[in-house]
Design brief:
Helix content: under 10%
Order of helices and strands: EEEEEEEEEEE
Radius of gyration: 13 Å
Distance between the termini: 37 Å
Largest sheet: 7 strands, mixed
Structural class: mainly beta
């Protein structure tokens, strides 16, 4: 089982980025997919989630700015991030879960700075 996250980088405040997380070795369509983030000196927090059925949920501070989506044909989950703020700076991780089976991907760094 492998989750490969990509798409991080340096962006100015107000800018946009799209993160991707490609899964292999799992029946992707059966898994809930999540994006977490961890800023320096802070605990990891759940940013967005999407169930196998496509229902979504978001951290209050990113509602209206971030959109999580999935493409089961490509075994990939996305996080479209817009109107980025310096406080969004963190390492972003994808996390897959179905029942007792779960897996973390490696992180991708997002830096929001002018």
């Amino acid at each position: 089982v492998q989750l490969q996250a990509s798409g991080g980088g340096l962006v100015q405040p107000g800018g946009s980025l799209r993160l991707s997380c490609a899964a292999s070795g799992i029946i992707f369509s059966r898994f809930a997919m999540n994006w977490y983030r961890q800023a320096p000196g802070k605990q990891r927090e759940l940013v967005a989630s999407i169930t196998a059925g496509g229902s979504t949920d978001y951290l209050d501070s990113v509602k209206g700015r971030f959109t999580i989506s999935r493409d089961n044909a490509k075994n990939t989950v996305y996080l479209q991030m817009s109107s980025l703020k310096p406080e969004d700076t963190a390492v972003y991780y994808c996390y897959a879960k179905a029942g007792i089976v779960s897996r973390w991907g490696q992180g991708t760094l997002v830096t929001v700075s002018s």
